[in-house]
Amino acid sequence: MASFRTRTRPKASGRLLALALGLGMASAALGTAAPASAQKNAEAPVRTAVGYVGVSQKADNKAFFDAVLKSVAKRQAAQPSAQAVTVYYNASQAPSFRSQISSAASIWNSSVSNVKLQATSGSADFAYYEGNDSRGSYASTDGHGRGYIFLDYAQNRQYNSVRVTAHETGHVLGLPDHYSGPCSELMSGGGPGPSCTNPYPNSTERSRVNQLWAYGLAQALAQVATTR
């Protein structure tokens, strides 16, 4: 896994044309930003990304979380009667990882109480994509409420795929990378090496996600209210 990390995405580079066309069309349908390399426009906007292996940058991680939080807050404000805080994801563009994505969502849903992940085939707060990327798997956003998780084939063969997916999903929920942590810490990502297969967040990580969604969403809703 070359990338459980946070970084600035470079301009789009050429990939398989079929992948580019497929993801570009899916992006328009989902309302989420597709991987830059999957877009036909070579001048795609620079995005921030957080991945599985590398040097963590907290500012980029926060940008991804804030984008998802903003998307959820807008929906909550439009549906004030909604009882549960739900983050919707679309996994239609990552069919090879359907099982891992479902497992990661179930792990998080059983671990935290203030936010839930829910699959949808329509408009989502973020999407999953799959393909080949020398930087590995990562979560990325343009900072404007659109984001995605990219799952790299090679990295998911080298490392435990459910752990990779749960780790990247942890970025969606607000957790930064901590590569120096032990295997028992989900956000240590690829730091402990390929032998680490733990896909579960520890008690500190669970508590942090609950705190972020209890207080962060309240602030996001207040911001939405002031812009109306």
UniProtKB/TrEMBL annotation:
Keywords: Disulfide bond, Hydrolase, Metal-binding, Metalloprotease, Protease, Secreted, Signal, Zinc
Signal peptide limits: 1-38
One of the record's GO cellular component terms: extracellular region
GO molecular function term, any single one: metalloendopeptidase activity
Disulfide bonds: C183-C196
One family name in Pfam for this protein: Peptidase_M7
Compartments, as annotated in UniProt: Secreted
UniProt KW Hydrolase keyword: yes
Catalytic residues of the enzyme: E168
Catalysed reaction equations from the record: Hydrolyzes proteins with a preference for Tyr or Phe in the P1' position. Has no action on amino-acid p-nitroanilides
InterPro entries: MetalloPept_cat_dom_sf (IPR024079), Peptidase_M7 (IPR000013)
GO biological process: proteolysis
Residues reported to bind Zn(2+): H167, H171, D177
Record family assignment: Belongs to the peptidase M7 family.
Name of protein: Extracellular small neutral protease
Species this chain originates from: Streptomyces actuosus
